[in-house]
Design brief:
With 439 residues, the protein is an alpha+beta fold. The chain has 3 domains: 5-83, no CATH class; 105-278, outer membrane lipoprotein receptor (LolB), chain A, CATH 2.50.20; 289-433, no CATH class. It has helices spanning 5-12, 25-36, 69-81, 90-100, 192-198, 201-206, 303-306, 424-430, and strands spanning 105-113, 119-121, 127-128, 131-139, 144-151, 154-162, 165-168, 171-173, 210-218, 221-228, 239-244, 250-255, 262-271, 289-297, 312-313, 317-318, 321-334, 344-355, 366-371, 393-395, 404-408, 411-415, 432-433.
Length: 439
């Protein structure tokens, strides 16, 4: 970038004190670093900073007036923008800090794949890549941290951490909460991979703990790689951070340890403190207990009446299987005392299919569970960790008690995967309305 020295001189001349002084730029960079770290007591230039030492590199002569706001802005810009890149880490560090900002509240949005969440679109069975997104507001000076977590666009968690206690979408966290736990630190903390970045990125830059290790390309961006040392006492691993070579903003973080974690930085900036950024999440009261009060055999023709007028099945036979039994299941849900809610009851229907000639207890038998409401008792997510079942999307089961599940024609459908190798996509695609006259 070219600088018109005459224009700059004309701007500064009215602010020049009668006595000209020599300024050492190393000292300027130190003070910019102190200012960006939030030390408002520091002035860009100090009488002790002028020609106090013999410069280690070429010294530029600049005249400044301490009270000149315009000159101060120009000189801050000059200090950050024009320091030679070959002169060490000054420019890189300062520009990386400037890209984040100097507000009280650090605001970060990260995104990463959610490998545990496996889903496919219906009817094609095409895999869907779920994205875990975290939006974080972190005020270190006030011991405040708000994290909003979403999965593929659905908010699944809100969590406020303070020095006085932690608060989730389910109320205060602790031994007296509706989900008791003693696992809470005295001040806001994040999981190690995020903590190393959110908590320490700015301070690591300012403290010289970020080392340039090379350049490269990430998602079409030319980047500079920085290595940030580990903080073993805080269980924070070493991290490699890719910063955009043009904007100096971080765009990718990956941990350098035995179990590496990688996430993209979709947004990073700082903001002024606002109490509204750290309000307590609205409290929900999901079921705390779930039990099957009764499970009784019924005729297939009774199912639609129990499910609001419609039921889905595979017919009497399907793909080498036969209908072995149909059951009505009555479920009861209890709630934490502080909710003030009374137990609720619901009804679902279970269709069991077995290999031809077999019974409901035969190896290879599988169940299709249906209800007009989301049933937590069946292992279907109804509160958090992943979006609730939706039309056109089948969440694949993880084995054990976690079933494949979807929503079809207004019914919540769950297919436990622990008893059969049957493809749940094929099962869901083959479901058809059960006529009331069916025996």
């Amino acid at each position: 970038m070219m600088v018109d020295e005459r224009a700059l001189q004309a701007l500064l001349d009215p602010l020049v004190p009668e006595e000209e002084t020599v300024c050492e730029w190393d000292d300027v960079l130190v003070r910019v670093e102190q200012i960006t770290k939030g030390d408002s007591s520091q002035r860009l230039f100090s009488p002790r900073g002028f020609a106090a030492r013999r410069p280690r590199r070429a010294v530029r002569r600049l005249t400044v007036a301490f009270g000149g706001a315009v000159a101060l802005a120009v000189l801050v810009f000059a200090a950050v923008a024009f320091w030679p890149a070959s002169g060490g880490g000054g420019t890189l560090v300062q520009r990386a800090l400037a890209a984040v900002g100097t507000g009280e509240v650090l605001h970060v949005v990260t995104e990463q794949p959610a490998p545990w969440y496996k889903a496919v679109s219906l009817p094609s069975g095409t895999p869907i890549q779920a994205t875990l997104r975290r939006e974080i507001w972190y005020d270190q000076s006030r011991d405040l941290n708000m994290t909003v977590t979403s999965l593929s666009g659905s908010i699944v968690s809100q969590f406020l951490e303070t020095s006085q206690g932690d608060f989730s979408s389910y109320g205060p966290v602790g031994p007296d909460s509706q989900f008791p736990t003693n696992d809470r630190g005295p001040s806001p903390t994040l999981e190690p991979a995020l903590a190393g970045f959110v908590d320490d990125y700015q301070s690591a830059l300012a403290a010289g703990q970020a080392t340039k290790t090379g350049t490269g390309e990430v998602d079409g961006h030319q980047v500079i790689w920085l290595h940030i040392t580990a903080q073993p006492k805080d269980y924070i691993p070493a991290e490699d951070v890719a910063i955009d070579a043009s904007t100096y903003a971080p765009i990718l973080v990956r941990t350098d340890n035995a179990n590496p974690v990688q996430f993209t930085v979709a947004q990073i900036d700082t903001q002024a403190y606002e109490p509204s950024l750290f309000t307590h999440p609205a409290v929900q009261y999901p079921p705390k207990t779930a039990t099957a009060e009764a499970t009784t055999p019924i005729a297939a023709s009774q199912a639609p009446g129990l499910l609001g007028g419609q039921a889905l099945w595979l017919g009497q036979t399907w793909n080498g299987y036969q209908l072995a039994k149909v059951e009505e299941q009555q479920l009861v849900y209890g709630y934490a005392p502080q909710s003030g809610k009374q137990p609720t009851r619901s009804v679902g229907v279970i269709f069991t299919y077995a290999p031809l000639g077999g019974s409901a207890d035969s190896p290879g038998a599988f169940e299709i569970k249906e209800a007009p409401q989301c049933e937590l008792y069946w292992g279907v997510n109804c509160i958090s960790l992943s979006p609730t079942p939706t039309e056109g999307l089948l969440v694949l089961g993880q084995g054990g008690p976690i079933p494949s599940n979807t929503m079809l024609d207004g019914l919540y459908v769950a297919i436990p995967g622990h008893s059969s190798q049957t493809d749940p996509v094929a099962v869901v695609n083959a479901l058809q309305p059960l006529n009331v006259g069916t025996k």
